[in-house]
Design a protein that fits this description.
Radius of gyration: 21 Å
Strand content: 25-35%
CATH superfamily of the largest domain: NAD(P)-binding Rossmann-like Domain
Shape: globular
Protein name: Enoyl reductase (ER) domain-containing protein
Structural class: alpha/beta
InterPro entries: ADH-like_N, ER, GroES-like_sf, Lipid_raft_assoc_Zn_ADH, NAD(P)-bd_dom_sf
Pfam families: ADH_N, ADH_zinc_N_2
CATH class of the largest domain: Alpha Beta
Helix content: 25-40%
Organism: Rachicladosporium monterosium
Amino acid sequence: MLYLCPTESGLQASSNTSTILQSTVVSSNLEMRAWTRQRRGAARASLELSIIAKPADPEPSSGDVLIRVSHVALQFSSESLFKLLPVLPLASPPVPELEFSGTIVAAGNATDADVRDTGTRVIAFCTIGDMSLGRGALAEYVRVPGGNATRLPEDADMAAMAGVLGSGSTALKMLRVGGVRAGSRVLVNGASGSVGSVLVQLCKRRGVHVVAVASGGNEEMVRGLGADEFIDYRKHEPLLPDHLASTYGGRPFDFVLDCVGLQALYTNSPSYLKPNGAVINIGSMEGVGATLWNWTMNTWCPTYLGGIPRRYIMFPTPPTKDDALVLVKMVEEGELRVAVDSVFQMGDAIQAYERVATRRAKGRVVIKVQ
């Protein structure tokens, strides 16, 4: 079962066609529209809707596929990276984003059979290397290896499925790395977000007791995903760790699954996390620089120098086709619901990024490309 969550203003999708979209017209079938990053800075200052060369059709001997993009799901870390990473002066302006849904329009003969036929609906992903070379997903057409694409059912919701792979792969890896199993007690911080909303469902599917942390306005949604207990972090700011210690000190967690990136959750974790437990963090709310510093200190600082006597785990989470097959099957069988916060038109990508930057999205923020 798939569902769309409305934005806080009650709008599911942007209804305005931006001026830049109206004035950006593709004049050749060798060209396409794409958002490109022209300079370092926030999305509003750095991104432009451009006309660039359309990727060539795959050669007959190739294992690549050319996909007409339907929807692109935005990464929660994109805005931070836009502000941090420079644009190389002699390179083509890079196209951002990694994961998307679309339709196969051409494929090489060496492509996997499940995604070789023209018209096949798929979810797919670009790699970080692709994006660094300018070949991201926020464009009308994307060419990727066939192994990066996974077939979808004909009735799939293309907006919802665009965002299942990145968040789903991350959630699956958090459970695998930690060894979360039936009977575990976990705290999920950021339970209403893109990863957190999947994580709650996967935990419940494994028979895990879930205490979910999110803002009070999202309680109904999070409980609907299966959370056993709910904490409104706004009622306890900035003393959430104190509340956790007083409430759960006598029944500590096996794992703290932090989808936000709150260092205080780890610093104070001995008060509510079992000695053999772990904090698994995939968030960077406090900034990329602070996150890297915290990872270094949390991972390597010995306890006799002030290190915290609990495990701290961070890891890269590139998506894989194996994960995609698992996630698509779970959605098909009604075992996983995909939360979409809002859908924006192609010309309104700046507003979409600003929605992500609020950190209040209930699920994925998606751009409808065409």
